[in-house]
Amino acid sequence: MTNLLHRFRAGTGKLAWNHPGVANAPETIIVSSPAFADGGPIPDRHAGPGVGDNVSPPLNWDNIPSGTRELVLLVEDPDAPLPRPFVHCVVTDIGPETSGVEAGALSRPADRAQVSFTVGKASIGKSGYLGPAPIRGHGPHRYIFQLFALDETVDPARRRVTKRRVLEAIRGHVIARGRLTGTYERV
């Protein structure tokens, strides 16, 4: 089965990064993590359930433009053997004064009352961060941490925050963007 799926991948064309109304925004935000370098392997601690500890990695960002009213973060795997990239995390309502999130901030449901952002649903329908857990032997997968600066806020009353709903809401309102890519492979 793995051999049949090895070449089948969602591709980068359907990432939030390339969505109409988003793709033309300047790439001026710098996104980084003390846990892994851009293009480098994501540590097992941040891998998904059954593979790692499913602790969201610490993230930092810089160069948020003035006029930003909200930040939105989407984490996607364009190498999943699916028609669309697998969504690992959707976060809205991040304040523009925020310069990052600590390890575990996106994956600890008990602590969410203490944070000022909204964590939406991953592709499997559960809220919160879902770490990498690619099919064994499928090769390396890329995990794209995409941060978008908006000139308006996404409706905070939304209860079911999903990639589709977020993309509808932010279309035409992204004034800057940045990304960090991590990799993970199960052999």
What's the gist of this structure?
The protein has 187 residues and is mainly beta. The chain has two helices and eight strands; from the N terminus they run αβββββββαβ. The protein has one domain: PEBP-like (Phosphatidylethanolamine-binding Protein, Alpha-Beta Complex), CATH 3.90.280.10.
Report on the structure:
This protein has helices spanning 2-5, 163-170, and strands at residues 30-32, 59-62, 70-77, 86-94, 100-101, 118-119, 141-150, 174-184. The mean pLDDT is 90. Strand 3 and strand 4 form a beta hairpin. The protein has a single domain (2-184), classed as PEBP-like (Phosphatidylethanolamine-binding Protein). It is mainly β. Helix content is 6%, strand content 26%. The radius of gyration is 15 Å and the shape is globular. It contains 2 helices and 8 strands, in the order H-E-E-E-E-E-E-E-H-E.
Write the layout of secondary structure elements.
Blueprint: H1 2-5, E1 30-32, E2 59-62, E3 70-77, E4 86-94, E5 100-101, E6 118-119, E7 141-150, H2 163-170, E8 174-184
Antiparallel strand pairs: 1-2, 2-5, 3-4, 3-7, 4-6, 7-8
Question: Which features would summarize this protein structure in a list?
Answer:
187 residues, mainly beta, Phosphatidylethanolamine-binding Protein, 5-stranded antiparallel sheet, 3-stranded antiparallel sheet, 2 helices, globular, YbhB/YbcL family Raf kinase inhibitor-like protein, PEBP-like_sf, PEBP, YbhB_YbcL/LppC-like
